[in-house]
Structures are given as structure tokens and as C-alpha cells.
Amino acid sequence: MSLGEMIKDKNGVVFHAYQVAKRAHEGVRRLSGAPYFSHPLAVAEELAEWGLDENAVAAGLLHDVAEDTDYTLDQIKKEFGEEIAFLVDGVTKLSRVKYHGQERQVESIRKMILSMAEDLRVILIRLADRHHNMKTLSALPAPKQKRIAEETMEIYAPLAYRLGMQRLSGELEDLAFPYLYPPEYKWIINSLKYHYDERVKYLSRVKPLVEEALDEAGIKPLLIDFRAKRYSSLYKKLLKYDMDISKIYDLVAFRIIVDTVEECYATLGIVHKLWPPLPGRIKDYIAMPKPNGYRSLHTTVLCLDQQIVEFQIRTEEMHREAENGIAAHWAYEQSKGTKKYLNREASVADPKETEWVEKLRSWQQDFSDPQEFMNALKIDFFRDRIFAMTPAGEVVDLPDGATPVDFAYQIHTDIGDQCVGARVNGKMVPLDYKLRSQDIVEIITQKNKKPSPAWLEFVITSKAKSHIRVASKSKGSLLNAPVQRFIEVKIIAEDRIGLLKDVVATISRSHININSSSSSPFGRGKLQIIKVKCETGERAKISKLIIKLKELGGVKEIDWRLI
Ligand code: MN
After folding, report:
1. Catalytically annotated residues
2. Ligand 1 center–CA 39 separation, angstroms
3. What is the pLDDT of residues 463-476, one digit of tens each?
4. Cβ atoms within 10 Å of 265's Cβ, excluding its own
């Protein structure tokens, strides 16, 4: 039922909540200039769209009332009952939890998950709340935009993904992306346009062939369309492929929705009869769903004109679940009763599918042991981050594999530079010790001490690396530091005044050391080949550099290799 339909019942709880919330927010505007009430309204609309019950939708309408207006939680309890008051209270508490990149992030996630275990709807309301706030983020001041975008990327998008809400998770990431990576976003938008248009033109030629073959086999698809890959996930993939868009085959993927599981497999067979599948690229997520519950058949084929195309095939129900995840499950159980749901049908993935929902429900018990909780947290949300602490309890967020020296530089450059030893959980450890989450780290410093170039062999954060290099150089040390790796970047560009200077400046701004550079004419003097030898082995850094170099005027082609 849509929110509009729910409101039609003038004796219903949703209509009541609508009126109370509208009155409570009366006269208040959001920073965007819109009436404040437009926000809870949008949240409630999304909750209704996910198929949640009337109490949850009413709580969505009231979610900011207790926090931002004179209307109190007690009044909500009196007028709407315990359940709605509990939901509103839960959302209000969650909204006080803030992620600042460094502080208290563990505690914040803990609260969030515990409350979810108590009632999943609290999380769903909070996610709808965040979704709408992200859509209207442009109205906020810049520092706040950055913080909220970061929190969305680090906490809410992974959470939505874990709950199987792939569409929401992807949308949250896409909404956060431009605020967190402005130049990368601009680059993707610019370079995507041509490839995307070409791809759509091409797939429009493929579509009738698929339709015809399905028709011959007597299969009536509910939907055949193509779906453009999301910016954020495209960017992650591009980092792996040296920012070369032509290597991304699922830039636009085919999606076929059919009636039954049997038809999914039949459709897969039909596609393979038309075009040969690429070995190793057939994924049966129906027989073996992803851990977050995702079910679908994927295949990549050598299609028309020898082009590579990805197909995704699933039923409508799988599609709905893929988009709305746990919300779809929740709605289903509400309407049919859990028991019936469990006995529903003996289809291939049933036991697995219900298992993960049940698992989510029992998370609270699973996490009675704090150590276990930390481990689960790491696996689920921050697989490659660790949280170590100073003796004063300040949390330091580091990549997995970080050492006390990385920790020291993360706190302060001087502490890093003057570091001579470290105690972890009260015991002395070597400086290349690998820190773990919850370690309490005390750095021992000595005045006027200089960092050792040998540290470059084990530190992993770029902050530590660059400071050690700078400090080693400034004291004129031997700099026989174990140099990590070199790359050679080759740039072909139209010859112009200042070209080499621009290239060198771009590389320097990326904090990459240049060892040597050369430039020679090419193609009857109209073009120049520039070769630069640089000192870095970090792929992410190289990819970012390539983007920036591609933006320089006249640049035709860029290539790089490790040397
Ligand atoms: Mn809100």
C-alpha cells in the first residue's frame, strides 16, 4: 500500500501521524528552503514503498518530532502507543550516533546493530531518513556534506548492502561519491558519456534478437532492459583496470526478468545458444545465493560483432528482493506469517535464503562477547580497517597491517618523527609489530630523534611513508632507503609550450617523487612522447595520477608499467 492509500483511512494511525507531524513541523524550513515536513513525508513514502506496516510508516512520519519540536516522546506514547513511541525513540537515538572518521566509530556501529536486533524497523526508518538527507545534501555547508557523505559511504551503504538492499546501498554510494571524490566523479561523468551512448545503441540491436529467441521457446519475459553500472562501483572497478573504460564489460548490462526459476535456467540456455559464454563467467546465484541473499543468474557472452556483454536473469520475486532485501522479506513475513513463508515452496535456494534472515535476527545474542562482536564487525563492515587506541582512549582508524609507526604518524607528525619504541597493551613490541583492533598503543618518543629510512620497509600508510621520506631528505641522510618500486609513465600528447612542465607539476601534486623525465618528438613533430620515471608502487595512487594526467590539455594516450 502506498502512503497516499494509507492516509485515506481517516481513522487510521498513519493519517493521525501525518496530521500531528505536519502541525509539529509547521513553519519550520529545511536548509534547502523546503518546508521541514517534506522530509518526514519522503521518509514515510519510501517505507510504504518497501512494504512496511502502518506503525513503521507512522513512525517514519513522526521520526524527527521528538527531537526537533515541542512534541515529546511521552505525548507520542500517549497518542500512538508503545510500539510507535519505541520506534521513534530508537531512530532518535540512532541519529545522535555520528561517525567522524576517527572517533567512537566502533561504539556507533554497535549501537546501531544492537537496536536493529531489537527491531529491524528502527534501522529501516533510519536508512530511509539517511537516503532522503543524502538526496538533499547539496543544501548543507561543505564540511557537513563531507562528514555525512563519509558516514554514508562507511556505515550506511555497507549496512544496507548487508541487509540485502542493493538498490539502496548503491544509491547511497552514488549520492556520496561526488562529495568524497569530486575530480574522479567529474572524470567519470565526462568519459562515460560517449561509451554509455555507444553501448546503449549497440544493446538496442541485441535486444530484438533475445526477444525473438525467447518467443520461439515460448518464454514471455516480464522485462528486458539494460542497466547502467553505478558510478561508485564503476570507479572501484576502474581502479582495477587502470581507468580504462573499454575494459569494463558490464558498463551496461542486460537484465531479463521471467516468471519462474525454471524459465531463468531456460533463458540462460537460450542466451548461450545465441552466443558462446565466456569461460568462468557463468554465476549461479540461484543455487548459491550471495551471503546477503542476492539471487540471480549471471553470464557474460561473446555477443554481436564479437563484443562482450553481461546478462542477468532472475524472477520478479528475486528482483524485488535484490532491490529491497530484508525489507522485502520483512514485508512478506508480515503479510503471510513466518510459518507459511518457511513452507512456501521447495525451490532451490529456500533454506539458505531464510537462514540469513534468521541470522540477522539473532545477532544480538551472537554479540554477547565483545571480542566476537569486534571480529564480526570487522568482517562485515570494515574488513580492511583496524581500530587501535591511545592510552587516553582516542580511537585511531588504520588500514589492516598497520604498525606502531603508522599509528604514531596518524596521531601527529612529531610523534612519528621522534618515535623510538612502542608498548602495546602494556608490553614493549618491535616497531614493525602488526597492530590489531582494540590494541592500546603507547608511543615512546625522544626529542630530536629523526625517523629511520629503514621504516619504509614496513610502514603501510602513505602519511607515514611521505613523512619518513621528507625527514630523511631534510637531514641529508644517505637515502639508501629501500626504495619500494618504480613506474614509468608514458604520455603521448600534442606538442605545446609548457607541456612537460604541466606533466611534472601534476605528478608532484600527487606526492609522487620523480626520478627522471624525458621528452621526444613523435609523428612528424606534432606529438611528443614524454617518459617519466616515478617512485611509487601504490595502484590507487597511480590510477588517480592517470586520471589527472588525462585531464591535461592535448594528452592523447597514457600508458604505465612497473620497472
Ligand atoms: Mn530525519
Report:
1. 67-68
2. 7
3. 888 888 888 776 44
4. 17
